[in-house]
Design a protein that fits this description.
256 residues, alpha/beta, 2 domains, 4-stranded mixed β-sheet, 9 helices
């Protein structure tokens, strides 16, 4: 079974070095390391990452070798150097496994040429966009067919089925495959309502009008509040799966 404690230990290594008085450069380095780990998890690449750690060749499913930049980007390289130095730092005793996990995550992203995908993921996070999904389907039957026929499904990632969030549960050892629904979106809407109180960027009399407006946007925002018949909705664009959706704020789960 998957040992996600590897990433937990790595995040703790990062957290111990995060401080309010740190330099902007260190904040960028630690932030990238944190985001690299979260990106691998959110995109369901756990098994690919573990295969990479064991020395197996892995490749990005979206970028060819010809399209891949030949050298790591500057910040990725600086981040790798920072954590390499930690390996020899006496104050890092007992943190070797977590440090190696960070380094392997950075090298995995480089080896699979996922610079642009990581940058898009970070932009989503900084924009407070909804939880990332790796696929979108209109019906449960379509999603089940995709999961059943996928040679190596993502693991612990989210997908959309009819604009409802579902979790991809996959275990490679037993070939267990499930798509339980979750409340990631509902919790996110409750959080966003407090973080960014709704102010409508557009208003519509009907949902059909709002859907037509959203479809017509050539470059839709990742998220924006709109009013439909007087009720707030979040208009969302999931660029990696080219999917647009409208989520009513009434779905939100709020802390008691």
């Amino acid at each position: 079974m998957k040992n996600f404690m590897v990433f937990s230990d790595a995040q703790q290594v990062i957290g111990r070095r995060w401080s309010d008085g740190q330099s902007q450069e260190q904040a960028r380095i630690l932030g990238l390391a944190r985001d690299a780990l979260t990106f691998i998890s959110a995109t369901g690449q756990w098994y690919s990452f573990m295969d990479f750690r064991e020395g197996h060749e892995v490749r990005s499913s979206t970028v060819t070798r010809e399209e891949c930049a030949p050298e790591p980007r500057e910040l990725l390289s600086k981040t790798e150097s920072f954590f390499k130095e930690l390996l020899d730092d006496p104050t890092s005793a007992g943190e070797q496994e977590g440090i190696h996990a960070v380094l392997d995550a950075l090298r995995f992203i480089s080896a699979t040429c996922q610079y642009d995908s990581l940058a898009e993921f970070i932009q989503r996070d900084e924009s407070h966009a909804p939880p990332m999904v790796v696929a979108a389907f209109e019906t449960s039957a379509q999603a089940e067919t995709w999961l059943r026929t996928h040679p190596s499904p993502p693991v612990s990632a989210d997908i959309l089925i009819g604009d409802r969030y579902h979790h991809v549960a996959y275990d490679r050892e037993t070939n267990l495959r499930r798509l339980p629904w979750n409340q990631d979106l509902e919790r996110y809407l409750g959080w966003l309502e407090m973080k960014d109180p709704p102010v409508a960027s557009a208003s519509f009399a009907t949902r059909e009008e709002a859907q037509a407006w959203l479809r017509a946007q050539s470059h839709p925002p990742l998220r924006t509040w709109v009013l439909i018949a007087g009720e707030f909705h979040l208009a969302v664009y999931h660029p990696n799966v080219n999917h647009r959706a409208l989520y009513p704020l009434s779905m939100a789960l709020r802390d008691a």
